[in-house]
Write a structure and sequence with these properties.
With about 210 residues, the chain is an all-alpha fold. It is built from ten helices and no strands.
């Protein structure tokens, strides 16, 4: 609520003080759309993102991170609504843009790969999910294994474990899922909400095994 209020104040100020088509205004609109999406206000979020994503594309490199985040948000909503093709398309574009502009080792690129792997998994494409999540997890470990992006390490290993399990590689998937759960508990505490989701994926894999 505080973030929404602050962003809205920024947008009100930009409407009075900045010319139309200003990059800061577009970035703030994209951030506000992400808040709408997080609150499951999908209609508001999609309308805003459909309007602002072309603007962010036009700005080029200065708006790359905002564009990557906006595409991921739109892809997440599409996946949540069962539109796997649209979800994968947005996530793939986010990965391509991040790789080209930020490099393969940037945390934003690695997160985009993780999100693409997740959408492959949700779309019933486990082989592609394994390939993408293996790369994301490896890059996260290579670049941040000594610290600095602990949540990224947890989430990339989690989706890799899910993908392995769904592709039939149950023992390996279970091992990675268990590692992810231990890391999440150490990072966020044993009662964090994301642990319930991770435990449910682990239980599914154990049942299959």
């Amino acid at each position: 609520d505080a973030a929404r209020e602050t962003l809205q104040a920024a947008l009100d100020l930009s409407a009075r003080k900045l010319p139309d088509g200003n990059i800061h205004t577009s970035q703030a609109r994209a951030q506000l759309a992400t808040i709408h999406a997080n609150e499951h206000e999908f209609d508001l979020a999609k309308r805003e993102l459909d309007a602002v994503i072309p603007e962010l594309r036009d700005y080029g490199r200065p708006a790359v991170r905002a564009l990557v985040n906006a595409l991921q948000t739109r892809g997440f909503m599409a996946g949540d609504e069962g539109d796997g093709d649209r979800a994968v398309a947005d996530m793939k574009e986010a990965v391509d843009i991040a790789e080209e502009s930020l490099g393969a080792n940037d945390s934003e690129t690695i997160l985009a790969k993780r999100q693409l792997a997740h959408e492959y998994l949700m779309a019933g494409r486990p082989a592609e999910a394994v390939e993408e999540s293996r790369e994301a997890s490896g890059l996260a470990q290579e670049n941040f294994g000594s610290g600095g992006r602990n949540a990224l390490l947890v989430e990339t290993e989690d989706v890799y474990g899910r993908a392995l399990a769904d592709s039939g590689q149950l023992a390996a998937g279970i091992e990675h899922l268990q590692n992810s759960i231990k890391r999440t508990e150490a990072l966020l505490g044993p009662n964090n909400g994301s642990i319930a989701s991770k435990l449910s994926w682990l239980a599914r894999a154990q049942l299959k095994l």
